[in-house]
Structure formats: C-alpha cells, structure tokens
Amino acid sequence: MSELCSFPDFEKIKDEINRKEKLLLNYVPVYIVLPIFGIVAEDNKNAELEETKKRLKRLKEEACIDGVMVDVWWGIVESEDPKKYKWEGYKELFKMIMSLELKIHVIMSFHKSSENGKTIGLPNWIVQYGKANPDIYYTDRNGFPDEGCLSLGVDNKPLFDDGNGKKRTAIKVYSDFMSSFKDNMIEFLEDGVIVAIEVGLGPNGELCYPSFPKEERKKGGETQQEWKTSGIGEFQCYDKYLKEDYEDNANDKQKQKVDLSDEKEFGNYNSKPGKTKFFKKNGTYTTETGKFFLEWYSNKLILHGDQVLREANKIFNGLKIDLVAKVSGVHWFYNHHSHAAELTAGYYNLDNKKKKKEEEGEGEGEGEGEGEGEGEGEGEGERDNRDGYSPIARMLYKRNCVLSFSCLEMKAINHISKEPFSSPEKLVKAVLSRAWKKGIEVIGANTWEINDADGYNQVLLNARPKGSNPKGKPKFKVHSFMCLRLSENLFKTNYDMFKDFVRKMHANLDYCGDAEMYPHEVESNSAITTEEILDASTVTKASEPIEWDKETDSKVHG
User: Fold this and answer.
1) FRET label pair with 556: which of 103, 210, 500, 501, CA 20 to 30 Å apart?
2) Distance from the Cα of residue 339 to its chain's centroid
3) Is residue 41 one of the residues assigned to a domain?
4) What DSSP string runs through 402-452?
C-alpha cells in the first residue's frame, strides 16, 4: 500500500509570507563605518584591502550587515592639482565591496581629519593658497584659522584655480568634485551598489561651524588652546569674508552690531556660560542685538547647506540614491537656558521651559558667576523660544535629502559628572522628531564605539521609538544605522552582542538585500522658498518632540 502524499499547507505558507512582509517594514539596515585611515591611502593605494575584505566578509556572513559607509576624501582624490582627480583607489575598493554584495553609503569628505598622529588633509593646492590667504578658513576671535575645511564665507568668492587659468568659487569646487565622482562611479550608482551620498557641509562633514575644535590651531609661532569637554566653544565668523558680510547685513538693516572683539562678551572655548556677557542669564543673546547676530550666523549656515545640496541635486538628479546631510550632536549645554554650545555651532535653538538643574541650582555653581543656578529669575520668561532644527529639516525637505544624526547610543547619566547640562537623549528626540514631522527620513549613527548592552539598547529605542509593529510599518523608524567602526576590536569585544543587535535592528528577520527598498530618486522640492525655510524657527506645537517609549521592545542582553 502506497503512502498518502502530504501536501504543504499553502494557507499557512501564505500567512507566514504576509507576516514577514509586514515585519520587513520594521527592518533597519545596518552599515559598518570603515576606518578613516588606511582604506584608501594618500598615494591612492589600498594597502589594507585584503584585510578589510576579510573582515567585511565575516561581518556579512556572520552578522548579516547590509553595507558599509566610506569617506571619499577630497584631499586624496584632488590632492595635487585643481580638477586632476584620481579615483583608482576608490574604484578598487568599491569593486571589492560589490563582490561581497554589500551596499555603500559614500561621504563626500571636503574636510581634514586627524587622529593618533595620522592626518588626511585638504588638497595641497588648497593648503598652498591658504598660506597666502588664511581667510579662506573659518577663524576665531583671536585670529586662529581652522584649517580643517573652507569657510562658508568663500562659497561664492571666485578664488580657486580651475587648472586652466580661470577662478572658481568654493561651491563650484565642490560641484566639480561631485560631477567627477558621478562620471567615474556611474556603474556603481546605476547598479544599486552606491545607495547614498552624504554631502560634506563643514567640519567632520557636518552642517555646523568648527566651534569646538579637537586639535590645536596655529598662527605664526602661536598656538591656540584646545576646546575641552563642556566648554561653550567660540563663534567662527572672524575671517574677513564673514566679518564683512555681517557688517554689511547689519548696516543694510540698520541693526546695532555686537562687539565681536570683546572677550568678556563671548568668553573662550572653555568658558562657562555664566562667565560671559553674551550667554549669562538675561545676557546679550536675549537682546535685539544678540538675536540679530544669532539669526545672521545661523541663517548663513542653513543657506550654505542649501546651496551645496542644490548642486548635489542637479548632479545626481534622476539616480536612485539618497542624498544625505549630517547635523552635529551638540548636547553638552542642551539643558542650559542659553544652549550656548549649540549657538556657537550655528544652531539657534532656545526654549523657555524651566530646566530642572537650574531650578535645583546644580551645575552652574562651578564658577558660573553670581546669580546663576538660582532659578529662572525675573525677565527669563520674556525670552523668545527658538526652534533651531526645524529650519534645517525644512531645507533638507526642499532638497529631498535625508538627515543624518549621531548620539543615538548616548545617555546623559554617562556624561553628567563632566557635563552637568548635557542631555543627548533630549537632543536626539528633538532633532529626530522635527525631521519626521517635516516629512524627511533620518539616518542614525553612534558617536562612540558601543561596548555594552545599554548602548545597543539605546540605539534600538531611538531607531524605533514607538516600538516595532507586527502589522506593518512602525509609526517612526530610522532609515538606516551607521555603526562605528570596523576594527579588530569589534570582533574581540562583545561580538555576539553586536550580531544580536543587528538581528534586532532587522526586526528578527534574515538579511534583506533588496536595494530598491531603501533609496529614492533624487529630485528637489524647489517650490519651498528661502523665507519659508527660515520662518520654520517659530516654535509651535509641531516643535514638540514625539513621545518615546521608555525602553526598546527588542532588547539586546549582555
């Protein structure tokens, strides 16, 4: 007697496929960030290509990562002469990554980077020009230039050679570089290997001023002090181009100018807010003179981002990739009434709510100045609220860009001893909420390497702040996550925890390599005007952050 054939239960299979398709909408792709140095060296060679390939292959097979993030350095590709681009090293790298079936998130890195005695600088021809005209760099009150990137003051100044006897603006220099990248990497762009291009907009590639430099600046034989953790930083508008712009703007609008040369007004990199005229309680930043300066300073930054991203839109128009811009996570005075560190970085962000620490008199007692830390005080309620992140979000919406933001692993409790006004959690909620409310996607990243379950779980919470949704797309979800950084330490320290983290980011699903899920076609929402962007600073109910769950529903266990 023959056995009866058993047929699969097609209804169960159909239900399981439907369940996985719904869960797939909760899937957050995870990219590993490649090391800054040694991937493509200054000689345009890949000295560590085989070792990098071995590590990435292991991460793909064992941890199921989705892709890699890689810096494409202006200082390497266009190093010697204007418009003489060398792409060989990056082509070789991209071919290797493609062979592993990983996606690539590229950064157009128009900045300098130094770490542990190693440096990738700006192109030599830029450095030589900067020796003759240091005003091409952001400059602080004492005249020390930051040679890490070009000042936005030269965006539209025809100062730079094109190799044929003509002069280019900084915007044209960036545009030419991106055009050459597109022409030389078109196969990777069209084949869905490169899925995102993050456009460098300032120091460390971020849309901000270099107000908290992490290395010494030099001028002649002098050396400037370094910024130290919890200092307010300094405004960076002292190159001749930005100074002229501020003075002209104030004169045209018949506004009183702040005295940019007054140290007592602004303090120095490591000052506390209460030791300055500008940031102390009811200080200059609350006056019409201070407000005008801060509006000018922050608006220049937003318009710089808009102008560079407009060029990127034109160049990559029609390609199925994400254009990305990164905002800096300046968290260490987020709980202070002045938000001083955000203001010097270019984020004109204020709120009028009482801060618990000020009410309790904590933190500012450390040399902050008389009267600080004793509560809000008379006149404090008259200060205007100011939404510093919605104008940036609206600008990115105009350019159809994705916002990149780090600090997703951070908690104030880990910083409170040195930074009593630090609140990375509140900052993350504020920035991500405003982006989502303006209709733009968010890419998350960590600031420091994660070595414990708390850090991974904080990322998981921020990645899906209202949890996963088994019935379909979650209410809020980051677009992808960039994990710092590929190294041998990743495999030696809690590697099993990292693999579990990736699995949880993937909503407990297997790797999904469908690149069509992620990027969208580059186009511009150009109907939005500049005035509408800048008007977004008005605080409304829409400025309030969304409500986060207290903890993630997808915990990694240590």
Assistant:
1) 103
2) 18
3) yes
4) EEEE--TT--GGGTTTT-TT--HHHHHHHHHHHHHHTT--EEEE-SS---S
How many domains are contained in the chain?
Answer: 1
Using only the alpha carbons of the chain, give its radius of gyration.
24
In a domain, residue 1? The reply is no
Beta-carbon neighbour count of residue 520 at 10 Å?
Answer: 13
Residues 6+ apart with CB under 8 A from 485: 32, 33, 34, 35, 449
Indicate whether 8 pLDDT > 90: no
Q: What percent of the chain has pLDDT over 70?
A: 89
6 — pLDDT class (breaks 50, 70, 90): low
Task: Supply the DSSP string of 165-196, one letter for each residue.
Answer: S-EE-HHHHHHHHHHHHHHHSHHHHHTTSEEE
What span, in angstroms and rounded, lies between the C-alpha atoms of 248 and 243? 9
Where is 109: in which H helix or E strand? strand 103-109
* Residue 345 belongs to domain with CATH number: 3.20.20.80
**Residue 45: domain span:** 29-543
Domain-located, residue 193: yes
pLDDT in tens, 424-474: 999 999 999 999 999 999 999 999 999 999 999 999 999 999 999 999 999
**What's the distance, CA 490 to chain centroid?**
23
- In a domain, residue 7? The reply is no
Q: Which amino acid is at 331?
A: H
Backbone angles phi, psi at 317, to 5 degrees: -55, 130
